[in-house]
Amino acid sequence: MSVKNFERSFGTAMSFEFFVALRHLRSRRQSGLLSAITYIAIAGVIVGVAALIIVLSVMNGYESEVRSRFIAMGSHVKVVTFHDRGLSDVQAVAKTVQSLSAVQAITPYLEGKGLIKHKKHTTGVVIQGIDPRTAGEVVDLKSCVIQGEYLADEPEAGILLGIFLAEKLQALPGDTVLVASYMGNPSLLQMPQMMRFVVRGLVRTGLYGLDDNLTYIHLQEAQKLFLYGTRISGLELRLYDFQQAETVAAELRNRLGYPYHANTWLDVNPNLFAWMKMQKWTAVIVLSLIILVASFNIISILIMITMEKKAQIGVLKSLGASTRQIRRIFTFEGIFIGVFGALLGSAIGYGICWSQQAFRWLSLPPDVYIVSWLPVLMRKSDFALITLITVLLAWLASVYPALRAARLHPVEALRNE
After folding, report:
1. What's the DSSP call for residue 191?
2. Which tens digit of pLDDT belongs to each residue from 283-311?
3. DSSP-derived secondary structure for 75-122
4. Domain count, the chain
């Protein structure tokens, strides 16, 4: 059957070039070395794609989980003063803040460092005074109380402890702890300000740094402890859209002026988020080398197929196959390896990521990685981009062997056969 007759018979179902390319790759008459290299190249593409899918999903999940926890337990924007002088004209500043349409809720806070003691256990802590009536509108603290109860609205000697801090102190709800602070004292020779608090509840935020160091007391109790009078450290803001934090902060800086300043949730841990982004793309670049190596294997495969099928190429040309058709045959072979490897690699990567999402079989030490399990977030755009890049590399790898095969002259191809 001539090439033109084949195209008339099977052209609607399968092109001539694709049919021949598929026969070349599926041929059982290939040499053992060629078959082994073919399998290695396909395996390389599969492993590379699966590794990229898994790494990107893990990086996306870790970044999203950390960001959501920081946003849930911290405000989107904070209004503070330079040199930690504290806000005295709270009402005027709050009125300016509330005039912005992007602001959903605000709450005052007072933060300082101190010592906490329970029986024989003493450790340094960060003490945050909050207004229980408005704090829940800005931070999701109430839902994090896993034992005991949330602080009452009225000022009283109650305190919330992070779960890991409570373990260090061996304190439980109902126990009494002693809190000391040197803030507000003109000299270290003076006795520190000390107050007793009853542990009302234990808090688990999911962030080790908070659960191991942070305590919460009523705002008025914090003002007494730190000798702050009626001043506060600042105002915490929750926005309707946290992505507008930079815009809102810039607007507040312009409106309030010195000595006020506005910080966003990104300013709290800039190095952490920058590190996560750098790690993500570094891992992608390194793992992409697996696919690049597989692409070189594709070049080797197609060159070896060209040498092995030289006689068949000569026969096809003598039957009427054009140079363009021969070139497309070998191009299809490279693309087929890329598509097959990308699809199977994506399926394997999806399966591993889904199992981690469903069963959380891989845990992490929370004191090192902030979260206690390996979070995963799969995105369709990542799958599409990795598949597209893989197929593109496979196509580029097939260009040279395809051109080499297309330049073969029928007479030269058949001379030694």
Report:
1. P
2. 778 878 888 888 888 888 888 877 777 77
3. -SEEEEEGGG--BS-HHHHHHHHHTSTTEEEEEEEEEEEEEEEETTEE
4. 2
